[in-house]
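User: Structure tokens for both sequences below?

Assistant:
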Amino acid sequence: MIADFAITLGERILIFLRSLGEIGLLFRKVIKEIPDRPLHLRLTVEQIYHIGIKSLGIVFVTAFSTGMVMALQFGLGLEKFGGKLYVPKIVSLSIVREIAPVFCSLMLAARVGAGIASELGSMTVTQQIDAIRALGTSPIKRVVIPRILASIISVPLLVALGNLLGILGAMVVSVSELGLDPMFFYQKILTTLVVTDFLAGLFKCFVFSFFISVTACYFGLNVKGGTQGVGSATRGSVVTSSILILVGDFFLTKLIFIVVGT
């Protein structure tokens, strides 16, 4: 039993590592073909609408509710030790540096990544990708790059909005449930947050946008097994991109502390 489990686990790890290698190869192709013409700006704008504008609702709910919960948890916990006044500083730093980039990216990996993987998977199954190649056009240039560029533009902007919504949600709870003065909360945020805090979070989002879009495109383009494979590719895209976001967050945080020093 233990031997079978170890063999199965090893196979899954090898499959995951092989997928990471192939995702890296796809990323190399994308970097190579981005400068080539045509640019397909119209397709990129369409993807910005689908990835960015249509994700506003889920970002609003995620960021606002997370800010409310964090303020309530920290407030009730610190109140026992007389540290309720530190809630604005702790919550705002946590949201801007970690919570908003990671949580919003995970939600976008579920929504955007699944959408891209299923859409490209359906195109692969119905041989639309093969038709694009037959017409002498690169699928990377026409299908993959617009989605990656749209993700690079949309994800950091959505997370920047998530920062504001998360802090706003924390302020609402701090005022209504913890009894803090709104001007005190606002002034604490101004004296706590600096530009590097926002830039650190946005840098993470920039990297996470590659994790989401490139991974989703890889799984969508490599669907096997007909329509059933589309579901497997969608699931694989969400799981892989989520793992990359969570693991990558540690190394990015370590890198930022090494470079910035705070």
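Moving on to the next sequence.
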Amino acid sequence: MNHPEPGETDSAQQAHACCAPSSASVEGPPASFAVTEDAGVAGMALLPGGVFRMGSDEDEGDPGDGEGPTRLVTISPFWMDTLAVSNARFASFVEATGYCTTAELAGWSFVFAGLLPDDSPPTRGVTETPWWREVAGASWRAPEGPHSSIEARLDHPVLHVSWHDAAAYCAWAGKRLPTEAEWEFASRGGLDGKRYPWGDELTPAGMHRCNTWQGTFPRHNTAEDGFYGTAPVDAFEPNGFGLFNTSGNAWEWCADWFSPRHSGAPLTNLSGPGAGTQRVIRGGSYLCHESYCFRYRVAARSSNTPASTTGHMGFRCARDS
């Protein structure tokens, strides 16, 4: 595998966060769509809403992530996709609309170095996180560049999609991106204050419940959970609401602008600040490891610019009830 040397500093691109390199933002989505395919609520779970404790006071994340203070949030009932949007579903959208993603327009996207073959062309790395490489031709169609394809990964989460791409898909499907509060409520699966969607133990009874990194990041992944890169969107057991893979596998875009500051006061249908430069991402990815990025916990959060695309960011959709 093509693992970079720790001291590489060959890129002007800087990482906004340790786990999600950023691209320059743009002034709004490159295209918008009216609803052209409304599949109703097929493949979605109706979540009951209610009051839940959002966030964490455990100091398990980066202080700048703003996981706390814990606050009471009231959520109205809503629908949520049980699965992240797959390559197959995104391909249907592109075929129907002719949509061209942010990465395709840019001509490149960020790829994890460990997924590149040893004979891949030279690439530039992100200064502070050199395992992220700028790969020409990488996109949702070719997740590791022109030599790769999604043919054997149609049931895996679509990757290399910007926030704009995710929002365009949602609009086409008659849905929307979930708010961050909706996302956390859904991921908790009805459990209160637990670290993961299934409880507090990462591997209860020795069983893996999500796709993250095992071993020593970034050089050795034992793949004890069965996967080196992404897993199918329906891998592992669902949470109490019937949602799959809200921890690990692929980060998921949320509708909200990011802010690390919260009032702690009770809130209803929280939707984040009215403006910003970064959009919230949730859930962590197959690259997360406690020693490096402990963000596959339910309360964990991060962000990225709306135009950023990487080989570990995807999304799922929500809908009003």
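User: Anything stand out in the second?

Assistant: The helical segments are 87-97, 102-106, 163-172, 180-188.
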